[in-house]
């Protein structure tokens, strides 16, 4: 049985598919207004929640707590810098086989997964190492 979506949910889903990148609820709200398809911010959040629970939208929460939404097109994998917030997308996925095993062993329908590693990017790591070296007492 196909789930009946509201007009607001359809608009948001179509927008996310056309943007082809993860965006915040605020960005969705502004973009819909720019496209003369405005809706209230509360409606945007409610629609995103329904779409997420239905497996049509995935959410990624950044280290700063901001949530980014995208249409479910593929799994997402990232390296995220805790210092500058830079996020590097990984194209390979080391957990696809595990996903299938979990679905089978737990009778659990998986819509998508995310894999995120947090640390320091090369630029921030170099700056951090320099700061550490500068603060080390010289004898």
Automatic annotation (TrEMBL):
Sample GO molecular function, one term: transcription cis-regulatory region binding
BP GO annotations: negative regulation of DNA-templated transcription; regulation of secondary metabolite biosynthetic process
Residues that, per the record, bind Zn(2+): 81, 84, 121, 124
Entry keyword Zinc: yes
Cofactor dependence: Zn(2+); Mn(2+); Fe(2+)
Record's keyword annotation contains DNA-binding: yes
UniProt keywords, alphabetically: DNA-binding, Iron, Metal-binding, Repressor, Transcription, Transcription regulation, Zinc
Cofactor comment: Binds 1 zinc ion per subunit.
UniProt-annotated binding residues for Fe cation: 113
Family label: Belongs to the Fur family.
Protein name: Fe2+/Zn2+ uptake regulation protein
């Amino acid at each position: 049985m196909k789930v009946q979506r509201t007009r607001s949910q359809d608009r948001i889903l179509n927008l996310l598919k056309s943007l082809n990148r993860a965006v915040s609820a605020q960005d969705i709200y502004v973009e819909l207004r720019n496209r003369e398809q405005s809706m209230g911010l509360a409606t945007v959040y409610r629609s995103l929640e329904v779409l997420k629970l239905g497996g049509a939208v995935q959410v990624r929460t950044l280290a700063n707590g901001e949530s980014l939404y995208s249409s479910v097109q593929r799994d997402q994998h990232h390296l995220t810098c805790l210092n500058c917030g830079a996020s590097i997308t990984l194209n390979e996925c080391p957990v696809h086989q595990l996903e299938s095993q979990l679905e089978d062993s737990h009778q659990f329908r998986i819509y998508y997964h995310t894999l995120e590693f947090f640390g320091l990017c090369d630029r921030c790591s170099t700056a951090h190492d320099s700061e550490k070296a500068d603060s080390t007492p010289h004898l």
